[in-house]
């Protein structure tokens, strides 16, 4: 099981930007994709973005399309989420996750490894 550690969260004003990072404990031959999910108080965990590890193809949740960019550095075994034009509704704990097989990358239950989360708060 891979250990995932998120960082880069914080407090930002509406319209601002943050970049989140997710460092994996070790490289893996079996990783297919990684993704970002978020969860606000009282709400279900929501799909944000995902990227296939080898090919780099991306998917985004409708609420973040055009504002967030997911990327990865294979050599550093690190996942990133660049968040621009942040709005108060983006406030949540952001989690990175990893999966070993393909399919619908937006399905939370198909991810086997999860980080502890990093808090993002956007003020108005």
Report on this structure.
With 124 residues, the protein is mainly β. It has strands spanning 4-7, 10-13, 18-24, 33-39, 46-52, 58-60, 68-73, 78-83, 92-99, 113-114, 118-123. 0% of the residues lie in helices and 48% in strands. The strands form two sheets. Strands 2, 4, 5, 6, 9, 10 and 11 form a seven-stranded mixed β-sheet that branches. The chain has a four-stranded antiparallel β-sheet with strand order 1-3-8-7, with no helix packed on it. Strand 7 (68-73) and strand 8 form a beta hairpin. It starts with a strand and ends with a strand.
Which radius of gyration do the C-alpha atoms yield?
Answer: 13 Å
How far the N terminus sits from the C terminus, by CA atoms, comes to 39 Å
User: Regarding quaternary structure, how should these chains be classified?
Assistant: single chain
Compute the number of helices: 0
Mean pLDDT: 94
What's the main sheet like? 7 strands, mixed
Helix content: under 10%
Q: Total number of β-strand segments? A: 11
Low-confidence stretches: none
Strand content: over 45%
């Amino acid at each position: 099981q891979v250990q995932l550690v998120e960082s880069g969260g914080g407090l930002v004003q509406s319209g601002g930007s943050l970049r989140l990072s997710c460092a994996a404990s070790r490289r893996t031959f079996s990783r297919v994709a990684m993704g970002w999910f978020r969860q606000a108080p009282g709400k279900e965990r929501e799909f944000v973005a995902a990227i296939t590890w080898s090919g780099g193809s991306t998917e985004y949740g409708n609420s973040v399309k055009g504002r967030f960019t997911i990327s990865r550095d294979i050599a550093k075994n690190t996942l990133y989420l660049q968040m621009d034009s942040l709005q108060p509704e983006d406030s949540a704990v952001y989690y990175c996750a990893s999966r070993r097989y393909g399919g619908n990358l937006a399905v939370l239950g198909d991810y086997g490894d999860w980080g502890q989360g990093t808090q993002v708060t956007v003020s108005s």
